[in-house]
Specification:
- By secondary structure, the protein is α/β, with parallel strands linked by helices.
- 36% of the residues lie in helices and 13% in strands.
- It has two domains: 7-35 and 321-413, Aspartate Aminotransferase, domain 1; 56-318, Aspartate Aminotransferase, domain 2 (3-Layer(aba) Sandwich), CATH 3.40.640.10.
- The protein contains 14 helices and 15 strands.
- α2 crosses α11 and α4 (85-92) packs across α11.
- The longest helix is centred in the C-terminal third of the chain and has 22 residues, at 322-343.
- The protein starts with 6 loop residues before the first helix and ends with a helix.
- It binds pyridoxal-5'-phosphate.
- Residues 104-106, 133, 135-136, 189, 193, 218, 220-221, 241 line the site of pyridoxal-5'-phosphate.
Length: 417
């Protein structure tokens, strides 16, 4: 792609973009009474304009139907979550029975660890990436403690080599091999939240399985952002939140994937009635009988208000299809990278340069006047993310960002005040 550092070029790219109309399906927050350049979709995705109507529909059904809404609402609440199996399966590359929308991300991680982190005297270690998202670290630590183990003995972190920003795949695989006899679980973020590095989940799963371990991923920064083929890759389990690239609102209902080979009755789960075989659930009998799907991990009945916002967003994903989003993603992020290199050569992009090793986010180290330059972005109406000591993260999202947005960022990051 031959990128040009000009407004005309950015506008011509937008004019040729077949997804450009989707921007108008979202509310774009304003800064100083003008539409902002919103680059924080990796943290909180924007609100689909259809979300309000869908939530209001559930409020109306509740007002008019009361308890009968469970079966008589426009989208009956009893089976509300079932509407998400197909669209989520497409987004994460699973078969529909392998995915379920439920709870929140860290909650789901704990539920999955209960089933898939089963340490023994020989096999008890967990391999993860260094600087994993804090919630994931705390989840792993406390799971180790739940089993009476010391987290320092359990958790093995793979870090970037000295002087490097990202983790080498060969080092992940080598670490798996080095611990193969004591390894219980490999658990890594599909896309690293800080560096934007995408991990080779296919290769990591193979290496983990060859070592006799279970392999799971946190897809918070991967879902709705990168190509996923969980079933084909043979991934054991995964979980994600829906408020980042899936635009379903703060604290919105999260998602879980479990490979179908784990649907058996013998799998240990923390159980609740919504995971119980649907045919006999209302006999209300003793003795848990799991649904033969990822739904077996559900505990409670569906939170329909947050699910209504989720539906508004997933309808858009189903309409667009992931392929087109990936195509635009690579152009948009490629343009961003080009403009940073051209306009601000002193800024170091720390996210991998290879499109196959990242999603839409770029992280960059701004060594000189970092904070001032970040503030200049804010004043110019650009919503980005600052991490101490000197990192700016930006995520141009193909559903609602434009090449002109990226051009504006390039102008401001290049001006030295
Ligand atoms: C955003 C994020 C979380 C947040 O967890 P919640 O339970 O949704 O609050 C956890 N892990 C990762 C990797 C994240 O990126």
């Amino acid at each position: 792609m031959n990128y040009e550092n000009s407004l005309d070029f950015a506008k011509s790219m937008d004019a040729a973009d077949e997804l450009s109309s989707y921007r108008s399906r979202f509310y774009i927050p304003e800064v100083n009474k003008k539409e902002s350049v919103y680059f924080c979709g990796n943290s909180l995705g924007l609100q689909p304009k259809t979300a309000q109507g869908m939530i209001e529909q559930e409020l109306k059904d509740w007002a008019e139907l009361g308890v009968h809404g469970h079966f008589e609402a426009g989208n009956p609440w009893y089976s509300y979550h079932e509407m998400f199996s197909e669209p989520l399966a497409k987004i994460v590359g699973a078969i529909p029975s392998e995915v379920v929308a439920m709870n929140a991300l860290t909650v789901n991680l704990h539920l999955l660890f209960v089933s898939f982190y089963r340490p023994t005297a020989e096999r008890y270690k967990i391999i993860c990436e260094a600087q994993a998202f804090p919630s994931d670290q705390y989840a792993m630590e406390s799971q180790a403690q739940m089993h009476g183990l010391n987290p320092d003995d359990v958790i093995i972190e793979v870090a970037p080599r000295t002087g490097e920003n990202c983790i080498r795949h060969e080092d992940i695989v080598a670490t798996i091999e080095a611990h193969r006899d004591s390894l219980a679980l490999v658990f890594i973020g599909g896309v690293h939240y800080y560096t934007g590095q995408r991990f080779d989940m296919d290769a990591i799963t193979k290496a983990g399985h060859e070592a006799g371990a279970i392999v799971g991923f946190d897809l918070a920064h991967a879902v709705g952002n990168i190509e996923l083929n969980l079933h084909e890759w043979n991934v054991d389990f995964a979980a994600w939140c829906s408020y980042k690239y899936l635009n379903s609102g703060s604290g919105g209902v999260a998602g879980t994937y479990v490979h179908e080979r784990h649907f058996g009755e013998d799998v240990l789960r923390l159980a609740g009635w919504w995971g119980y075989n649907k045919e006999t659930r209302f006999k209300m009998e003793k003795g848990f009988k799991p649904i033969s799907s990822a739904e077996a991990w559900q505990l409670s009945n569906a939170p329909v208000f947050s699910m209504a916002a989720h539906k508004a967003s997933l309808d858009i994903f189903s309409e667009v299809g992931m392929e087109k989003l990936f195509e635009k993603r690579d152009k948009l992020t490629g343009y961003l990278e080009h403009l940073i290199k051209t306009n601000a050569p002193d800024v170091e992009v720390t996210t991998p340069a290879e499109p196959g090793e990242r999603g839409c986010q770029l992280s960059m180290e701004v060594a000189s006047n970092g904070k001032e330059r970040y503030e200049a972005l804010g004043k110019a109406g650009i919503v980005a993310d600052w991490r101490e000591p000197n990192v700016i993260r930006v995520a141009p999202v193909p559903l609602y960002n434009t090449f002109e947005d990226v051009f504006k960022f390039g102008q401001i990051i290049g001006s030295k005040n």
